[in-house]
Amino acid sequence: MDQKVNLQAGKLSAEDLSALEAVVERTDEAAQQLRGGIVE
Amino acid sequence: MVVLMGEQYAAAGEFVYGHPIWEAIRHGDQSALHAYMLETRHYLAAASTRMSPSIARQIGLSPLNLLLSQHLLEEWDHAKFYSAALNAIGCSRELVAATRPMPATLEWIHATRHIGYVSGLNAAMCSGFMEYSSTEIDAVTGWHDMLVAEGLLPPEANEAIVGHVDTDVAFGHVDNWKHALTEHGPLRVAEAASALNAVATLAEAIYRWLSSLRQGLASSVVNGMQLLTADRPAGAGSGQTPPAKSADALDMNVAIYEGLPVWPAELMRIATWGDPGLTPSARVVSGLTYALGADDDPLPDAPLSEVVRTYAARLAPRSAEGADTVAALDRQASDWLRSIDGHELWTAMTQEPSNALITGYVLENFHYLASAASHVGAAIASSTSGAVRAQLIAHLEDELTHCRMLERKLIELAGVERPSAMRPLPTTVAFVGFLQNLAHQDWKAYLVVSTFLQRSLSETRDNGRGSRFYEEIAVRSPLGAELLAALRDHDEIDEGLGHDERPTQRLAELLRLGPVPMDSVRHAAMAPALAWGFLDGIVQHYRHGTASVSQRVAWSG
């Protein structure tokens, strides 16, 4: 319940922020990784 | 054919209704049920766009066209039942209508649109499968009684959904497919095979969708909407304040033609499959970002909305450029590569390149290249500019038979005797079908997508990522080295033909007519989401070993 109230108030725990930050970091790194194309 | 199709429905029904999600809900998984309600609402809201392609292709009112048209007229507004159910569990209609469908829902909708474009009969057969569960009305009634008895769904929400079941049963849609077959008359073998394949594709699309409902973030989007709805000023959305749009219009809204912002592959992956590293609150923020973090921001004024806006801006920085210069459009299309950068498929191919995965990758690309005539041809047909038509004709001439390079390798090296007799994954059908439909609908948007696709290759040339990708696979997989040589050859031929510069030449010609409408850019931006799905379908399916390749054998004739 506390978690819902906090989230509704826009408050995130350190663990929440860390999890979200990890997604941003993985996204930032993606542009350097090897890949193929989807060429016509 | 009635017997064959009846058996196909039984097999497909066993597949779809044997999915573990149903057992999970029976055991109290309310999250899966909420995800099902939200995404079913989107699927139903897209009914008019899914069902109309099958009736828009002929002069005269044939019995089949009449049947399909009547079905559309009886189904187009059924999202209202699920919107009411979602409203009953605390999600405002306005927010529900503004949410972007999950990636697997978009795939299902676009694959179904393509099936309708291909054949009215196939559309009728797929529709027959969707109505198939109506034959087991006792099981459906028992299911809904259970949802209420177990406290998984409040009675008013259940009542709304049962209203949908009752409406469908009253229409008697369950036998429409038999009427369609009767009206059509005897089928050629190839027509029968095509119809059976369409139903198999549909069942596979639904299975992937159900898997995503259970693992992905749709349920967290519902949780987030409940918080945002509860946080609204008193009266808003409760019926005391007139809604901005009529209920019918709201229930028609579904974001299947609006792909901005283009989300990165990592968010697409999490939205579809979840991630064990996410906390419940991080799931909600990520889910709301995917579903509501649009450029035209439908989020209400609330603290949680601010969190979502900040996160959305970090994951997909808003493009400051417009759509009125070649450079701006080229930059936008290049930015959209974030949807495939870092995709799980590339990692799987470089780290664990099994023969099945490499074969599957080439096979699905074969289906894609073999369809070049369909989407380039559609764009030639719809372009109002003679100069662009000339450019596209040159493009078609270059691309028409490139698929044969892949076909030969699949036959010689991978033991795929007839690549064209293998059934494309539903994610490939969604992606390639979208390209075809887009080219029919909006050739300007198609030219922007074409730029995105060409940049997916040229961008890896500039920094060597593409060549190192192939080299890395070759180190671990002798078959991969040989089989992928076909794709490398194709890429080099493309470069030799000057294809890297062609998209900007076409955009320049397009801009002579004036700026590209933003509506077209938003529509084009759906392609990166379906391109992500094209890649994701490959890695999810062909990671299961050799049988995953032989499983693609299609009905043929």
List keywords for this structure.
heterodimer, A: 40 residues, mainly alpha, 2 helices, 60% helix, 0% strand, B: 557 residues, 71% helix
Give an overview in words:
The complex is a heterodimer of chains A (40) and B (557). Chain A is mainly alpha-helical and 40 residues long. Chain A contains two helices and no strands. Chain A has helices at residues 2-8, 14-30. The longest helix of chain A has 17 residues, at 14-30. The mean pLDDT of chain A is 93. The two termini of chain B are 14 Å apart. Chain B has 557 residues and is mostly helical. In chain B, helix 9 (120-130) runs antiparallel to helix 12 (176-184), helix 14 (218-230) packs across helix 17 and helix 21 runs antiparallel to helix 32. Residues 234-244 of chain B have low confidence and may be disordered. In chain B, 71% of the residues lie in helices and 0% in strands. Chain B contains 33 helices and no strands. Classes of the chains: A mainly alpha (40), B mainly alpha (557). Chains A and B meet through helix 1 and helix 2 of A and helix 16, helix 17, helix 18, helix 20 and helix 26 of B.
